[in-house]
Records
---
Amino acid sequence: MCAKKSPEELKSIFQKYAAKEGDPNQLSKEELKQLIQAEFPSLLKGSNTLDHLFAELDKNGDGEVSFEEFQVLVNKIAK
Ligand SMILES: [Ca+2]
Ligand SMILES: [Ca+2]
């Protein structure tokens, strides 16, 4: 048994949090924070802060995380 979630579950989690403010298809830093804290708190351990995580995910540096960028996190969780 592991914490792996199905692609459908991850997509619905992404959409649920991305829709909270601004662009419903993009996660702002605040939305990412809420998502991580509620669904994957184990990702924020030690030096792995939200700032680090957000910077890692936001590949194009536009200040929001798209579903495509979110896949990086999905791959981390799936490990
Ligand atoms: Ca949003
Ligand atoms: Ca981005």
---
Amino acid sequence: MLIAAPNLCLDITIAIPRLVPGSVSRATGTDTSAGGKGVNVARAARTLGGRPVVAGFLPRADGSRFTRLLDAEGLALRKVDVDGVLRIASILVEDDRRVTVINGRGADVDSTRWHRFTSLIVDAVAGAGVLVCSGSLPPGAPVDGYAQLVEIGHRGDVPVVVDAAPAALAAALGAQPDLVSPNLSEAEGLLFGRVDEQVDEVGEDIPLRAVRAAVGLHAAGAVRAVVTAGSAGAALCTTTGAWWLAARPVDLVNPIGAGDCFAAAAALALVAGAKDIDVVRRGMAAASASCEQPTAGRLDPARAAELFEKITAQTMDPTVLAG
Ligand SMILES: Nc1ncnc2c1ncn2[C@@H]1O[C@H](COP(=O)(O)OP(=O)(O)OP(=O)(O)O)[C@@H](O)[C@H]1O
Ligand SMILES: [Mg+2]
């Protein structure tokens, strides 16, 4: 599995008793790890038996810090050097477990560097089995960056999964990615201009909204359009129909990164030739299992296998969708 993760970052998790905006806080603990959604995908893919390679841009000045952290986790990296400094995501965790995330801005990427990156993908995609485009694009990257990568994957006869922020995903749809898997907020943002983002969606109309969004993404070009909706489940639309799959309840520890585990497991199922509904069941099972772990991208594969058996798909009636 090749993971295009152009906007890599360093995750700095800082424990503080309480966040008081406008004041100085003293940390009670700090943890630094390689981050960015693509790194979560890589962690999950390796746990599930895949051989992931992460591809991204790294600043010459301080990129070695990221490389060392990724190395320590045994994850492979292919990189394009850039100027500037490493992007930092600051994750503030208070004593009451409330979490505040500040996503830093990445180093700028000019057209020469972007071209180097696409050349790297052309080279690395051969024999990769599947290409996963994960996360946001760095400043300076072309908005149709993921569309270019979908075309590269297809020229190399490799299926491409895109799990990206709405603007980057919207631009990729025309290139007909084999699987897209935004969450409900991202999908509705892309299709209907919705802007708020909830960590978990609530409401009785979620299955219908998710299926409608999946139908919209499929119509816009995605071969298999999945829309994930947190603890509620996920919707799928393909040329043969539309389905809602309810998630199984879990002992929730941390839902952050569930979508990345979904992308990893679904991509592996896709290369293994699983049926479309089973691709989604595999993705959901891994995603739900990851919610029982504290670290994004980690999961117990035995728990995922157990959840997979319990997830069922409900065919959605087209007349319900039309109403
Ligand atoms: N609380 C939960 N209980 C059970 N399953 C969950 C829960 N939260 C998420 N999941 C599973 O994970 C899948 C993906 O979750 P979600 O829609 O939250 O992704 P996401 O918003 O992209 O996550 P992230 O961006 O943090 O990676 C869901 O479709 C569901 O199968
Ligand atoms: Mg997501």
